[in-house]
Amino acid sequence: MISHQTLKRLEFDKILAEISGHVHSEVTAARLMDTVPLSDGGAIASISGRIEEIRSLASQGIALRLQPFQDIRPLMELLRPVGAFLGPRELLIFIPVLEIFGDIARQFAPRNDIPLLKGLDPPLKGFADILEPLAASIDQDGGIMDSASTALREIRRAKRSLASRIRKKIEEIVRDNNIEIFLQDDFITQRSGRWVIPVRMDSKGMVKGVVHDVSSSGETAFMEPLEIIPFVNELENLSAEEKAEEIRILRQLSSWIRQDAAEISACFETLLTLDELASIARFADTHALEPPSLNGEGVLRLAGARHPLLLMLQAQGALSRVEPLDLQLGGEGTVMVITGPNAGGKTIALKTAGVLVLMALCGMPVPADGASSTFPLLDDLLVDMGDEQSIEQSLSTFSAHVSRVAAILEQAGPRSLVLLDELGAGTEPQQGAAIACGVLRELRERGAMVIATTHLSEIIGYVHATEGMVNAGMEYDAETYTPLYRLISGQPGHSHAIEIARRYGMPDRVISFAREMLGTASEEFTSLLAELHRKRGELEHGAAQLEREREQVRAIRRELEARSATIEQARQETREKAWADAREVISTARRRMNELLDEYRRERRSESIEKLRRVEAEVTEQLSPRDLAGDDQPLGEVAEGDSVRIRSLGHDGRVLQLLPKQGRARVRAGSMELEVPLSDLVAPLKQTGGTATRPSGGDWRVQAVEEGERELKLIGLRVEEALALLDPFLSQASLGSFSEVRIIHGLGSGRLRQAVREHLAHHQLVEEFRPGNAHEGRDGATVVTLRR
């Protein structure tokens, strides 16, 4: 249990006071000021998670529907006895509380992103059966409204009517009896609940009535005319009925609250919790705090940590900058001793570590890098900080210091964090250093984590030589002797007392004498620390330069990757365009060939054949530079019987006859014979493992069987591949004067058969087609009749 005194020494109460400025009720503020750290990791995680859920809602523009409210718990105690009831002003206090219950219950109901808030026990619920009659009965001024009941409304209506009649009656009496001359003034008023007129004291016998009061001057008597007494008595009876009805209403409302007292009280505790969490969330959003990460391994790691009180001063404009603190403790090193000059930030570092641990153990967001910082689960946080010299107890500063440290040694354990400010101070330096080293050793053996500050350089060597301890120093500008407020772990600091004294005007002879008294060893130690600072600066400069160079390399790599992606995209676009152009050339060639074939059949055979050959040469020329021919090897000379590859078909064949005058050759491909330009012949593909290497464009599995060029087998081909072979086949068949050919496509899924027949239905060379007969392959083949 962390003591209240520790919380006060670390000024945790000032942070709580700042947070309490965001609450909606004084009772929440009082409860918030009693906040204490927890040791249960699960409970801390629940608090932290709920705060983050509230902040998440706020980031979406959704605020909890809270409004100012008062403490209803004392009123609930007054209502405990049966028959007790509250006045209208007291009942008015319940209205905003019950409104908040209902508003937040409706706000939470449809949401699935706030499981921890919805898991608060008990969950808030609306008490509509109490809130509605309360809101209809009590106005904002604490009065009972006419709408509280029908009876009350009728009674008040009767009272207003009777009061109007009384006023008119008095006016008639004054007018008809000519008594205006006896009146002190011309107004009608009430005294002690009776309706009266002001009559001059010397004329009161001239007016028939009852004197109910006399003015302070004694010159005016307030008289009730006798004629209105029955009316006033009736009005008093109505007032009594009104009072009785109001009491009945208050009893009824109080009774309804009493019946649900347990639930209302429990929900009020949940409301206080929500108000408290919401105020912490608003404080966290104001200063950009991050949720804490807790660990059970006894590790304290701070990255970019700032003291919240300094952040508050910065927000107010009192500070221009708050230097972040980086610190790690636990694992291999559980004791850290911070040395450095006065006003260098040692105590601020100590308090920052302490107060952030307190905030984390309360589940509060902390001013540190949440991803890199972590906080240990603790049972105790023990602090010796500040001068608590006691005259009454005859304790000097050193005695009070030793007394507190001795108490800390008794309490410290493995789940303790000990903060010691100015360890070993207040006595002779060598003896103080010896005691300090003994304290550090005892705390390390007890397994406690320790952060201590000191000015005693004698402690540095002991810490350096002791396992589990680490020196740290507050960085100082050696040229200007000004503090930089940055903690450097692994490197001790130095007080620079003589240099600072000289800078602030200490006479040179005093400085010189002090240096002589200090001796050469201290001078060497100071020089060593200065050298360490210099080398560290060089290392930091080198590391920064290396990081800049690495960033340049990363930037160049990103640029190269972007360029590579652009080039690859350009290649892909070029490849796609090439294929599109090739398809267009083939389509145009097919169309022109079909036209020439028609002309061939109709008119001049020799001229059409020559045109057909020219078109074929053009197509071959257009296709020759494309990717399809990229891997083909040209032939130097071609002889009859040579194995060749027909580039336009993508199929190997053998030369049957050379036609040099026409620049063509007759070639057999499978069992098909056809004439092709010599330029279309290339070296056949090399055999790899007995299998010819095919081009990437696809596997041209075409086979003519049994009847030479009368059949085309397309089984196993894709639709696109099959249609690409179909047109050349029909053209060659037409040139060969075949009247009928058979196309074998198989049954399969039917897609290839359908595609072939749809293509034949619009082909210029096709007269008609039909499925094969029994001996022709039935529906697995299509028999085509060519036009003559």
Automatic annotation (TrEMBL):
Coiled coil ranges: 529-610
EC number per UniProt: 3.1.-.-, 3.6.4.-
GO molecular function, one term: ATP-dependent DNA damage sensor activity
Keyword Nucleotide-binding: yes
Keyword annotations of the record: ATP-binding, Coiled coil, DNA-binding, Endonuclease, Hydrolase, Nuclease, Nucleotide-binding, RNA-binding, rRNA-binding
Keyword rRNA-binding: yes
Residues that, per the record, bind ATP: G340, P341, N342, A343, G344, G345, K346, T347
InterPro entries hit by this protein: DNA_mismatch_repair_MutS_C, DNA_mismatch_repair_MutS_core, DNA_mismatch_repair_MutS_sf, MSSS, MutS, MutS2, P-loop_NTPase, Smr_dom
UniProt enzyme class: hydrolase
Any Pfam family hit: Smr
GO terms (BP aspect): mismatch repair; negative regulation of DNA recombination; rescue of stalled ribosome
Subunit record text: Homodimer. Binds to stalled ribosomes, contacting rRNA.
PANTHER family linked: OS10G0509000 PROTEIN, OS10G0509000 PROTEIN-RELATED
Biological role stated in the UniProt entry: Endonuclease that is involved in the suppression of homologous recombination and thus may have a key role in the control of bacterial genetic diversity.
Recorded family membership: Belongs to the DNA mismatch repair MutS family. MutS2 subfamily.
Name recorded for this polypeptide: Endonuclease MutS2
Organism for this UniProt entry: Pelobacter propionicus (strain DSM 2379 / NBRC 103807 / OttBd1)
Organism lineage: Bacteria, Pseudomonadati, Thermodesulfobacteriota, Desulfuromonadia, Desulfuromonadales
